[in-house]
Amino acid sequence: MDKKQQLLEVATKLFVERGFHATPTSAITKEAGVSAGILFHYFKTKEDLIVAIYIKLKEEYANAIIVDINKFKAGRSKLRLIWSNSWNWGLENPIKYLFLVQLDNSTYANTVKNHPDIIAKHTMFSALIQEYISERIVRDIDAVFLMTSMFSLITSMVNHLSIFPEQKNDPSFIEHAWDMFYNYLKP
Predict the structure, then answer these.
(1) φ/ψ (deg, to 5) at 139
(2) Number of domains the chain is built from
(3) Labelling 145: which of 2, 41, 92, 186 has CA 20 to 30 A away?
(4) What is the pLDDT of residues 86-104, one digit of tens each?
């Protein structure tokens, strides 16, 4: 693994464990086994590092949740796949998922929302939501609010299945969870 990737992984873990403000760059470089000069070669500031991690993880998450989406024609089937892929990625990548949730609920959220890569992902998912609204698959309400609500419900699923992992393989539970998710969104 190259030094930049090592820094990103160590920083992600430490930020989740300690918080953004309680994680000095010296702790990141020490655990990564690199000098401060290396960290600041790749990232001018700690905020730049945090933003870089978020952009990378948001890209990974977005790509994971739309895997196989074109195999389905019906919008509701696509929505269910997005739902399922979302919480599965969160369970498979707990530190990364916690980082995304943590940043979304931090003072850094305003910094990242205007990043071009985040705007592009937001635009893509917003268009998908608008398509679902026009097809009357989901209720006609502000797309940003819908996406935020969906992420919150998915986070609940990730949290629950982290505590009760056996329910991931319980078809009855999964079906009830999907029904609750979709009943919140449907028109």
Answers:
(1) -65, 150
(2) 2
(3) 92
(4) 999 999 999 999 999 999 9
